[in-house]
Write a structure and sequence with these properties.
There is one protein chain. With 349 residues, the chain is α+β, with helices and mostly antiparallel strands. The protein has 2 domains: 93 residues; 232 residues, BirA Bifunctional Protein, domain 2 (2-Layer Sandwich). The chain is built from 11 helices and 10 strands. Helix 1 runs parallel beside helix 4, helix 2 packs antiparallel against helix 4 and helix 5 packs across helix 10. It is rod-shaped.
Length: 349
């Protein structure tokens, strides 16, 4: 590192030193590496800039002046470059620190999922009926007029066939308005009774308010066998609702009309909120309508190739969304379809 005699030699020598420093500084990526470069170049005892300054004692005249000026310029360059690099290293380390994981902190619990209220009710109902010897049947959600209306004894001018109630699509197809078409398909596919099925699934109707949704969920039950009576229907309903709600739940049948059952009935249960004592939910009556039921109309059986003189059956259906609203005290059916995780969290809790 001895100084050269001429100005050009001095400039060339310190230019190489400056280039060497720049290469070393460029490779710095941490505070420790920065400190090593600083000591190597600006250290008070063995720093390279310090050693260059010490060679001034061996020079005289113009050579001493030129060498001193060039070394001081190198020193200023080193100091300025080190200051800029120090700021960059601090910023880099601060950014890395903000992303670092503090292993001393307690771990974050993963989000725990929960079943939707409708899924909970559906599973419970399926378990109740499978324990009673029923099987689960499914069918398409896009249906034709025959399976959705015609085979179920709906007259051609029935209001349900109107666009105000039913979603029709191209090609004479429609979105099923109930899960009853699954009953028709099952009876047509089976060679002969006995038949004991439940049919859970999504259904669609052109309706939308606080208690109705264009898409909702139903489950229907169908039993066809020899000697099936209205008493079997009532006994099945009592066993079902007392398992689903409370063991002391009362059941009441009120005469009604459905195209595919005869006789037909609306089925009420004692209000789950007041146990029949009367409250705002049940309009002080002590009863709450829960489902529709009846004996399968002989014309429906005959249309499916089942002799109504030999076989009889019953059917009933209920809205799963309504059951979920009752079970979990949900005031608005839209809450079931809002994808708000607080709803399922509340049900889980």
């Amino acid at each position: 590192m001895a100084a050269g005699g001429g100005g050009e030699g001095v400039a060339a020598s310190l230019s190489e030193e400056r280039a060497l420093f720049d290469r070393e500084l460029e490779a710095v990526g941490s505070r420790a590496q920065w400190e090593e470069v600083r000591l190597r170049w600006l250290g008070k005892k063995r720093g390279r800039v310090r050693q260059h300054l010490q060679t001034l004692r061996d020079l005289e005249g113009e050579g001493r002046k030129v060498w001193g000026r060039e070394v001081n310029e190198l020193k200023r360059h080193v100091e300025a470059a080190l200051a800029r690099r120090e700021a960059a290293v601090k910023a880099l380390e601060a950014s890395a620190s903000s992303l670092a994981v503090d292993v001393t902190l307690p771990g974050r619990r993963p989000a725990v999922g929960a079943l939707h209220p409708v899924s909970i009710v559906t599973q419970e109902i399926v378990e109740i009926f499978t324990a009673m010897g029923y099987s689960v049947a499914e069918g398409p959600e896009i249906e034709d007029d025959y399976h959705n209306f015609g085979a179920l004894n709906f007259p051609p001018d029935h209001p349900a066939r109107d666009t105000q109630d039913t979603f029709f699509i191209a090609g004479g197809r429609l979105l099923r308005t109930h899960t009853s078409p699954v009953q028709i398909r099952t009876m047509l596919e089976r060679e002969a009774p006995p038949i004991r099925i439940i049919c859970p699934g999504r259904v669609y109707r052109n309706d939308n308010d606080l208690r109705h949704s264009p898409m909702f969920h139903q489950v229907e039950c169908l039993v066809v066998d020899k000697g099936v009576t209205l008493g079997h229907l009532k006994g099945t309903l009592e066993a079902f609702v007392r398992k689903l709600f409370r063991p002391d739940t009362g059941v009441r049948l009120r005469p009604s009309f459905f195209p595919f059952t005869e006789p037909s009935a609306e089925v009420d249960i004692t209000c789950p909120f007041c146990s029949g004592g009367g409250c705002r939910t049940c309009s002080e009556t002590g009863w709450m309508e829960i489902l529709g039921a009846g004996m399968v109309d002989p014309r429906v059986l005959a249309g499916c190739g089942i002799d109504p003189a030999v076989y009889s059956g019953f059917a009933f259906g209920l809205g799963l969304d309504r059951v979920a609203m009752i079970r979990f005290d949900i005031p608005n059916i839209r809450l079931l379809f809002d994808n708000d995780q607080r709803l399922v969290g509340q049900v889980r809790g």
